[in-house]
Automatic annotation (TrEMBL):
Any Pfam family: PapZ_C
RapZ-like N-terminal domain: residues covered: 1-158
Gene designation: rapZ
Recorded GO MF terms: ATP binding; GTP binding
Organism of this sequence: Undibacterium jejuense
Name of the protein described by the UniProt record: RNase adapter RapZ
Length: 286
């Protein structure tokens, strides 16, 4: 059975992801206590279900310590177990809670634990939740949903589901520094020092996927030197990341606007590494 465990920070889009999987035919369960996971999977297997998506969040905080072993036990039984973790910047999460006018799921519980009649602030709850879920995040493929549209998140979740299971999936992601560094990045490279096609009026409306921009950057010695340096760094250290039992490695490459140089570099690196590795690609600003 393919089992996709969905977790993440409240407000980051877990419900959107779960709805995508339900539409794709997954048997979905929201907010399942981790201790009930083995029994659920056993029952679903007996009923011949082949795909299951289970959401586990911070409301089961006291039961999360045993989750890594539970996941390993399920893998030992032959199940394809993957973990997807959604997160977002604190400012983005605060804005989303403000729009929905809902309280954070931890606010009342934390206040009770502190024997206080005053609920914790939203920011305090978000930071506490990050601490609670840090262990799950380290096991997962992380998607930073800051500034992502719902349709974009739906598409990315579908890609994660469709990829074949391998020792490590290499993710290349372009982004705009003016929007901030993605929270899901494991490695970050800055290509803002490369000559910018934005200042050419003919290239400005194009992207790093378009042939005129590619030709422009192919002719920049600095761009080629940077490409080779990043390629050699990843090639050297990728075996070590694989030995560390990682399932995903996200390499984020940023330029000012996330439109030309970073997109060009991500496309070029993807073309090289997809010959030997399982590779995914994301462009946050396109």
């Amino acid at each position: 059975m393919q089992i996709l465990l969905i977790s993440g920070i409240s407000g980051s889009g877990k419900s959107v992801a779960l709805n995508v999987l339900e539409d794709a035919g997954y048997y979905c369960v929201d907010n399942l206590p981790p201790s009930l996971l083995p029994g659920l999977i056993k029952t679903l297997s007996q009923e011949d279900h082949t795909n299951a998506a289970i959401s586990i969040d911070s409301r089961s905080a006291h039961l999360l310590s045993g989750l890594p072993q539970t996941l390993q036990d399920l893998r030992d039984l032959g199940h394809d177990v993957r973990v997807l973790f959604l997160t977002a910047s604190t400012d983005s999460l605060v804005a989303r809670f403000s729009e929905t006018r809902r309280s954070h799921p931890l606010s009342h519980r934390l206040a009770m634990e502190l024997a206080s009649n005053v609920d914790l602030s939203l920011v305090e709850c978000i930071e506490e939740e990050r601490e609670i879920l840090a262990g799950i995040q380290n096991l997962a493929h992380v998607i930073d949903t800051t500034d992502l549209r719902a349709n974009q998140l739906r598409a990315w979740v579908k890609v994660v589901v469709q990829i074949q299971r391998s020792p490590l999936t290499l993710m290349f992601e372009s982004f705009a520094f003016k929007r901030g560094v993605p929270l899901d990045a494991d490695l970050v490279f800055d290509v803002r020092m490369i000559p910018n096609p934005h200042y050419d009026p003919l290239l400005r409306p194009l992207t790093g996927r378009d042939e005129p921009v590619i030709r422009f950057l192919d002719n920049q010695e600095m761009a080629q030197d940077m490409y080779l340096d990043i390629l050699n760094f990843i090639t050297k250290w990728l075996p070590a990341f694989k030995q560390d039992n990682r399932s995903y490695l996200t390499v984020a490459i940023g330029c000012t606007g996330g439109q030309h140089r970073s997109v060009y570099m991500v496309e070029k690196l993807t073309k090289y590494f997809q010959k030997t590795e399982q590779v995914l690609i994301r462009h946050r600003r396109l």
